[in-house]
């Protein structure tokens, strides 16, 4: 049996639309074993409906590897125990894709490298900003170059922690993507490039001034704000409570705040705020996961290399 643990991720960080993501210490643990025939899928700890047939994303990722390397499968039994909220902007689909690809790679004889896995994951997800940190951990800047996905993972210090504020509603990624314009002005593009660079430097160097400047996005948050009622008020309150930067996580509706101390006070203050607003949002503090996806072997968790 293969067991893969994959971290949650937050992408579109600040102005880094479709390019920057971070791995967080919230996990989907996936167990896969070959059987004589058939397909059995068990989804633990999940309130939302997830397919238990060949439409299941983990299964599809496993089969993508098998097709790539020419491996003939028998049957499969798949169990996932995911603590990552589904369709909330924390990389639940990327965790399934990366976990399935890694499990399929081990089952079929480890014929694919991590760059190969990244390419397949980006192909399935549509872009690499979530799958890169899910695979490599840390803070990742990624891009497509021709038909290849590339990324650079930077291992972050524990200086910052990350408040994840998750509502009880979701916004389908397809719908959220459909809110975005097909073209943007040269001014907005230039604005985002400068802010994204500053955000990346701020996170890597611990510069909080750069972080707040770097979340001033013009490419996706202004268009997606209509789907998250009270988003501007949430941002305002987060800064009043000491956030160094706040932004939509992925396509939303989750909001992520970068913190440098006062973690309990921040979470308590945001929970009080949500109660006062009579909105059902949760708040929890997470840390960066600098390891990324790991495969469990007889010695415990280790990188599958």
Description:
With 305 residues, the protein is α+β, with helices and mostly antiparallel strands. Helix content is 35%, strand content 27%. It is built from 10 helices and 12 strands. It has helices at 57-69, 92-107, 114-125, 131-136, 173-178, 186-205, 208-214, 221-224, 231-240, 263-276; strands at 2-11, 20-35, 39-44, 75-82, 139-145, 148-154, 161-167, 245-248, 255-259, 281-286, 294-297, 300-302. The strands form 2 sheets. Strands 1, 2, 3, 4, 5, 6, 11 and 12 form an 8-stranded mixed sheet that branches. A 4-stranded antiparallel sheet has the order 8-9-7-10. Strand 11 and strand 12 form a beta hairpin. Helix 1 (57-69) packs parallel to helix 2 (92-107). The longest helix is centred in the middle third of the chain and has 20 residues, at 186-205. The protein is globular and about 60 Å long.
